[in-house]
């Protein structure tokens, strides 16, 4: 019962984080770039990310808490499969990249939007877009490895 609950919370947290990045990257930002000028686009994207990043922080916390708990139920980190080792490694990198986005370009974007400095805001948004793309690719790999890894003959 506990194992099932932890897996559910773990997977839902992954869906929120990775799915949110997929929407941002594949649809929201390109649509905003096609339809809106920087004075409308940048405050919109900044507002979307300010809200989404609260959920990302909750998702990261839950992923690590449930993940470590699952490992302890399995026995130990050493006994866990290769897919769990890879998942943890990528999750740590992803969390560090998120911390970088939050601490540097997102902060710059918020300051640029507040000061209505659109070129600066555009530069910050370009950095965020690249870093979110990297995290999206890593996140998709992690979901595939987390869900399918145990069935691979390795
Ligand atoms: C980006 C971060 C992560 C994503 C996207 C992710 C995704 C997943 C997914 C999709 C599953 C499969 C659930 C299922 O269908 O059974 C899973 C399982 C699991 N995850 Fe993660 N995970 C992440 C981070 C972590 C972290 C940080 C840890 C540990 C500290 C962890 C430990 C585990 C464990 C132990 C399992 C169960 C594996 C098994 O029973 O074979 N994960 N994860």
Q: Any overview of this molecule?
A:
Helix 1 runs antiparallel to helix 2, helix 2 runs antiparallel to helix 3 and helix 4 packs antiparallel against helix 5. The chain has one domain. Helices cover 88% and strands 0% of the residues. The chain contains five helices and no strands. With 154 residues, it is mostly helical. The structure holds protoporphyrin IX containing FE (HEM). The site of protoporphyrin IX containing FE (HEM) has 24 residues, from helix 1, helix 2, helix 3 and helix 5. The site of protoporphyrin IX containing FE has 24 residues, from helix 1, helix 2, helix 3 and helix 5.
Task: Give the structure's gist in a few sentences.
This protein is 88% helix and 0% strand.
Keyword list:
154 residues; 5 helices; binds protoporphyrin IX containing FE
Hetero groups: protoporphyrin IX containing FE
Q: Say how many strands there are.
A: 0
Q: How many angstroms separate the termini?
A: 28 Å
Summed up, the domain count is 1
Please estimate the helix content: over 70%
Mean pLDDT: 97
Order of helices and strands: HHHHH
H/I helix tally: 5
Oligomer: single chain
Q: Which SSEs are present, and which pair or pack?
A:
Layout: H1 2-35, H2 38-74, H3 82-103, H4 105-115, H5 118-148
Helix pairs in contact: 1-2, 1-5, 2-3, 2-4, 3-5, 4-5
The site of protoporphyrin IX containing FE (HEM) has 24 residues, from helix 1, helix 2, helix 3 and helix 5.
